[in-house]
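# step 3/5: fold
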Amino acid sequence: MDTDALSATATDILTLNQWFSPAYPVGSFAYSHGLEWAIDAGDVTTAAQTAAWIEQVLQHGAGWNDSLFLAAAYRADADELDEIDAIARAFAASSERLKETRLQGEAFCDVTAKVWATDLARWTYPVVVGRAARLESLPLDLTTQFYLMAFVSNLSAVAMRLVPLGQTDGQSLIRNLTPLCKEIAEAAHSGSLDDLTSTSFASDIAAMKHETQYSRIFRT
């Protein structure tokens, strides 16, 4: 049972809702995680293909690894965070993936450190979120679930715009992937950096090809 989530206060939930709201200025809307190229190439053209693509990234790519980095940063002593961040950067499969996690992390750090008067550094996105959650005593499982749901919502919004998916299909996709976000968060809670792995090769290749895509809307 997710005892951390059950013990969360209303303030915890509202804080996480704020951090992962589209209004929080981390610029998530500007990144497609390679999905823009996959849509343009014709690899993702339906709601079912979009769901399969995002599911693979969650289970076997950045979703899983970011959850482990977030948990590691949450548990780490302050002097261990730079090393965790270095590993997170090394696991970025392309220059655009590194840009995505670096710039979102820097943006999250800048606003959170000012609003919550929190001592943060400009680490990669999951690392700085994990550290901020620890400093604010937010539940790890729930923080990870919110992080993953924001990731799913952002990719779904990309597909709603470019496939294009209707709003109903897009929202159904998010709802259907919600249980998976919970499962991954729970598994990462009991995992460690020894469990890092990535086999979402199609997504990695898409992110690499996006770097030279002639016409594009998103930064990655």
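# step 4/5: annotate
The chain is about 65% helix and 0% strand.
# step 5/5: archive (pending)
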